[in-house]
Amino acid sequence: MKMDDMVIISVDDHISEPPDMFEKHLQGDALATAPQFHTTADGANYWTYQGMTMTSVGLNAVVGRVPEEYGMEPQSLEQVRKGCYDPRARLDDMNANGIAASLNFGSIGGFDGSRCFHMAPDKDLALIHLRAYNDWHIKDWCATDPDRFIACALLPTWDMDATVAEIERVAAMGCTSVTLTENPTKIGLPSIHNEYWEPMWKALAENDITICLHIGSGNAAPHASLETPIEAWISTMPMSIAVGAADWLQLSALQRYPDLKIILSESGIGWVPYFLERSDFAHERHKAWTNSGFEGTKPSEVFRKHFMTCFIDDAFGLKNLEDLGEDMVAYECDYPHSDCLWPEVPEWLWDSVQGLTDTRIDKITHLNAMRMLNFNPFKHHKREELTVGALRAKAAADGVDVTPISTGGAAPLAEGEAKRPVTSGDIMAMMKKQAEVA
Amino acid sequence: MKMDDMVIISVDDHISEPPDMFEKHLQGDALATAPQFHTTADGANYWTYQGMTMTSVGLNAVVGRVPEEYGMEPQSLEQVRKGCYDPRARLDDMNANGIAASLNFGSIGGFDGSRCFHMAPDKDLALIHLRAYNDWHIKDWCATDPDRFIACALLPTWDMDATVAEIERVAAMGCTSVTLTENPTKIGLPSIHNEYWEPMWKALAENDITICLHIGSGNAAPHASLETPIEAWISTMPMSIAVGAADWLQLSALQRYPDLKIILSESGIGWVPYFLERSDFAHERHKAWTNSGFEGTKPSEVFRKHFMTCFIDDAFGLKNLEDLGEDMVAYECDYPHSDCLWPEVPEWLWDSVQGLTDTRIDKITHLNAMRMLNFNPFKHHKREELTVGALRAKAAADGVDVTPISTGGAAPLAEGEAKRPVTSGDIMAMMKKQAEVA
């Protein structure tokens, strides 16, 4: 295999929702009460919904910028690449990056909708608007090319009847995944170990729907202190999902629903073999008093059967693919966030798969994602049309411009302030200020 | 090499402090106001100090029990092995386990003293008693056999002048390490990035004193929910130090004091190569705006120069020793806590070092610990007297009894309650109840 022959599916990207998203899917009062897009006198965008205010473009949508501005927070859709909010422009950017297909999480409601619909006081309205959100995601965004966008729906988990109904509704539209908080207790719902969730597990299993748990959607990714240089937080953020991974690994529903599938989005992979070995040790060493429910299997076996982990750039993990399980690892791009290697993903990825067989390269670049997400990009496209080489040739023919740009935004240090390490406190202050602008 | 030829130093064990610890080191008012040991009518032990109450035996001092009782919390010194509080009995237990030397953390004040002396309202008294604590640790516990106990002092970090004085005082007594919270902001002190700490870095570097940061001494080891089976927490607890590791890796004092040495106690090792790779990625990708202070070096280089990580049982980490750095990994026993493999450490360890050269086995079993802690167990003992085989022969000759015992204690489930998975909530309730007994 050559770099240009890879077919790359990204199982974790992001959308900055466009202003008109609800217009085609709602009318009358339902449209009037839907989340509303606004622009301040200074040009900053934001959304309002049921008394709440939400920033528009989503955390750190800085793809395509000069590196000096990765830490600056875009305040309007004008400061981000069009591919953040326009699916046709996104396809162009995917082509330039050699990405065959992409699963996307939203921004205004958080990765799982919990910051918008779950917090809304009027849950009848929230259900109407969450459904419209899914309609837009599936019928507008993904339908732009259903072979190249993998649908991932929100669920109204504050109501289990509505959740089951929504699972069946989106499944009928061809959607094969949902995004959930990795820790529902953080939004006031029962823990995943509570019987509250039983109808959802059943409906997900029966409809062959995969659960995506994105880092930062529940358990904290802690900053040690406000004075800690921000690189510390960047480096530990993916691994913060270990708390959620351990929690979900104990889920007894995995024993009752052997087909339940879970993707740990933006998890990284290199720490996972340690985590599995440690989970096995903890179980073997403590099961005499913990009464945990692994019923003769090892935690690592349960994990390798149900969980897929994802990587952006993770040479150590790929070197140890056998300890991870070669069927449960997938690539992710994280467009348009600052870790995203756009438009150079193929170069980075090719470099890190050098020790692997072609079979394994195919698994981690697309086959595992296809199987875990019950997704087929080759319905209307031949394989050779979706390779890195073919997509980039198309981008070149279409004149997709990938030149790094400078578009500004909120900055972590004050203008004119002497150069010093940017801290967690600086970033939190920047985010707070930005929220106040909105 | 054979299993019996290994020389094993453990860089992380624990003491349940004996009732008479302050008597030889204080008198008069100073003794009368020192932490006091008590026994309830039911036989439970506890300590009081300046209005605070502390449980006596320390978290989970269950070594030597039957596995069914690993989750039961000892309430008195009568329920734990004598080796928890008596240094001569500890040497017997080390012999039976083939352990040549051991570094110990205390219990009543937390691993770093912060739960006792740092919380005390009268800091003049706290300084007197902290110093007496160090006197006892160095002159009583460690002096029982200074070739086999590695001293590790507490520091009065609420006062930098007193801290510098105490560093110099314990260094003069031959102590070569101190234990600190991994996150001082949790006890109301400035972050490690604050200039407040400058005198301490200087004094530690000048006196060649190594810093030990024990998991759970600062940053949280989170429970996902109260309903989460406790095995989840057990499995993620060591890795919770990643937040602290990332914080300390950014410490600018490491650039100013090239000899500063840090041990991440009970960290585990298998996740560390991922963490280093991720830290390098975060730095390379973001340095254009983070202004972080690595001055041309990689974070992983700084880590491998200054930080030692430790393992209890960690085959994946040892398999990847080259990615860790073979000079910065050490064994730890964790006696008397429930992960401790006593009295079978040599068997477990030997099994996991099978892929390593004799040189590397020597490094991770004792040479790295000796170098990092400036400690020499061979001053009064020949090497062949401190091997697994020699120590176990001595234990056998001395008749050290290692038969698993049942001694009870507080239990996570109510008596007669049906068998079900023990949860985080159960353990927290057990600890709360135990604190109320005290």
Structural features, described:
- 2 copies of one chain form a homodimer.
- In chain A, helix 3 links the parallel strand 5 and strand 6.
- The model of chain A has no long low-confidence stretch (mean pLDDT 96).
- Chain A contains 16 helices and 11 strands.
- In chain A, the strands form 3 sheets. Chain A has a 5-stranded parallel β-sheet with strand order 7-8-9-10-11. Chain A has a 3-stranded parallel β-sheet with strand order 1-5-6.
- The first copy, chain A, has 438 residues and is an alpha/beta fold.
- The longest helix of chain A is centred in the first third of the chain and has 19 residues.
- The radius of gyration of chain A is 21 Å and the shape is globular.
- The N and C termini of chain A lie far apart (49 Å).
- In chain A, helix 2 packs across helix 15 and helix 4 runs parallel beside helix 5.
- The interface between A and B is large, with 78 and 78 residues.
Topology:
The structure is a homodimer.
Chain A: E1 8-14, H1 28-32, E2 36-39, E3 45-49, E4 52-55, H2 87-96, E5 99-105, H3 123-141, E6 149-150, H4 160-172, E7 177-180, H5 198-206, E8 210-214, H6 230-236, H7 242-249, H8 253-256, E9 262-265, H9 272-290, H10 299-306, E10 307-311, H11 315-319, H12 321-324, E11 329-331, H13 345-352, H14 358-372, H15 388-398, H16 424-437
Helix pairs in contact in A: 2-15, 4-5
